[in-house]
Design a protein that fits this description.
Two copies of one chain form a homodimer. Chain A has 218 residues and is α/β, with parallel strands linked by helices. The first copy, chain A, has helices at 12-27, 38-45, 49-56, 71-82, 97-104, 107-110, 141-148, 159-172, 198-214; strands at 35-36, 69-70, 89-93, 114-120, 129-130, 133-134, 136-137, 150-155, 176-179, 192-195. Chain A is 44% helix and 17% strand. In chain A, the strands form three sheets. Chain A has a six-stranded parallel β-sheet, sandwiched between helices. The first copy, chain A, binds a DNA duplex (24 and 24 nucleotides) through α3.
DNA sequence: TAGATTGTTAATCGATTAACAATC
DNA sequence: TAGATTGTTAATCGATTAACAATC
């Protein structure tokens, strides 16, 4: 009866941990382990068991007392939430070192994300090979996005080019952007942007190292 | 007098935003802008001005009423906290597509992190060129770390190899690890690990897209 | 002066953890 | 049965935001 049968909002920190759970279950893949407990997941990922149970309670999935969670079933519902079963297609914008590496990185494919194009504006790069793909002109983006039903754009361009590239992706019909560029982008309604910046991560690391050296007791 | 003149603990969310502020100031670099207000920083980065002021209050730095923060000074204290002036040296472990791309990525150098080696265990990769560097055997790691005072290891290896590689880095004397591998690592005391996983980020994006499509009002 | 902006306190909001009844 | 584990509530903890006095 309740309206809350519809999928509820899941807090972002929870979503991030769900992705971690998925990663752990994937590492169990070939093993024959059939059940996993909240305690075991927590240990493996450096969390508390209460957090794991709370997180899993957001899913349409139940564990079983004394056993824990059935590995295959949990993998299925996690995959549903994380959209890895949706067969999402993605394109990469930016065919520099990072963009090319991502195009060749088969982890995306392993996790259900199909990279179906790589684009750039540089005439020096357009036409060059990246694995089995050929770098295409940004002008070809709308056509490819339309033809393949591309939903995700991976932005691997210099900061100065980020805004224009993002607008191009959005105009082409992409609904989500993974932003590796060092520029802040505000998504229009209906578009989601997630930042993933290596420079910020290494700076975070460096700051934590600094603080740790100053107050080693922590 | 107070003991709290010593550097206080800065919450991780704050540190992450400090890195964003730094990125924004960097984008102002060539410009002649001398002052920046909390309001302006907030706008540029999608935050509130209260958050910006609260964050900056963790720093040993003061703004000026009616003017805001002096750009050069703020950049200096941010750089201190983020360790970008420390001239930190880093090595990359894993000379696959991602590792090689990171070695060639000059954003790290631009931000004050000096990549001074790339390592792998594969005899097929050892000895190959990556820019001006040559891929070295992991066995050479302790020597290089010692000689150059390397503090950071960037882990870009497959999940199965992550633990061994991390132990190698730590044994060699590295104090911080940027972990791009899909494996959870628990740092020993005195070592800091920050995770930066593209697969988790794209799954987070995908989940947010899914939720957005289900509840577009959010 | 009036207006803009900081620095900081207090209030709100949200996330994590502890605890425990229910269950097998 | 006893013991292990879930699911969930309530308590705690921490982060963000609002508000405003102080200042130039």
């Amino acid at each position: 009866m309740s309206l809350d049968n519809r999928p509820h909002r899941i807090p972002t920190p929870v979503i991030r941990r769900l992705a971690k759970y998925m990663g752990h279950l994937r590492s169990l893949r070939d093993e024959t382990q059939e059940w996993v407990s909240s305690r075991e997941l927590a240990r493996a990922l450096g969390l508390t068991d209460a957090t794991v149970r709370q997180d899993i309670s957001y899913l349409d999935f139940s564990g079983r007392e004394k056993f824990g969670y059935e590995v295959g079933g949990l993998r299925r519902v996690l995959g549903d939430v994380l959209g890895v079963h949706a067969g999402r297609r993605a394109v990469i914008v930016g065919a520099g070192n990072l963009g090319r590496a991502l195009a060749l990185h088969d982890d995306f494919a392993t996790c259900g994300f199909d990279i179906c194009g790589i684009f750039d504006v540089s005439s020096q790069l357009i036409g060059t090979n990246v694995g089995t793909m050929v770098v295409q002109d940004m002008a070809a983006l709308p056509r490819i996005v339309g033809r393949h039903g591309v939903e995700i754009g991976i932005l691997a361009v210099p900061a100065v080019a980020a805004r224009t590239a993002a607008l191009g992706l959005i105009a082409a019909g992409v609904k989500g952007i993974l932003n590796l560029a060092s520029a802040h982008l505000s998504p229009p309604p209906g578009v989601v942007i997630v930042d993933a910046r290596l420079v910020e991560s290494i700076q975070e690391l460096s700051a934590l190292m600094q603080l740790q050296q100053q107050r080693p007791q922590d």
